[in-house]
Amino acid sequence: MFNAHAFEIGGPKGVFQPAKLFADFGSLVTTVITLLTTVAGVVAIIFIIIGGIKIVTASGDMKKIQAAQGTILYAIIGLAVTILAFVILQIVQYFFGANVAIT
Known about the structure:
Number of helices: 2
Oligomer: single chain
Structural class: mainly alpha
Helix content: 55-70%
Radius of gyration: 23 Å
Largest sheet: none
Low-confidence stretches: none
Mean pLDDT: 81
Strand content: under 5%
Number of strands: 0
């Protein structure tokens, strides 16, 4: 016969506590901004590659080429906005003395 309670259930040390992942609100913001910046950069690069593939496979069709150029243009604009947001964050951090380390 097996006892369902034959093993030790984790106490306070064994329980996952997501609230303790971040020391304070600033570290949460830092993590979120880092994640979003990374994702935005990767997505922009992927769309630039997709636009390049669309241009190569357009076979001279001007509508397809223009659509692909639009894809590349908007991806570059998105990448520029992401970089600009990062720079603005760094400037605000410098002037207000916030300690938001983005690595």
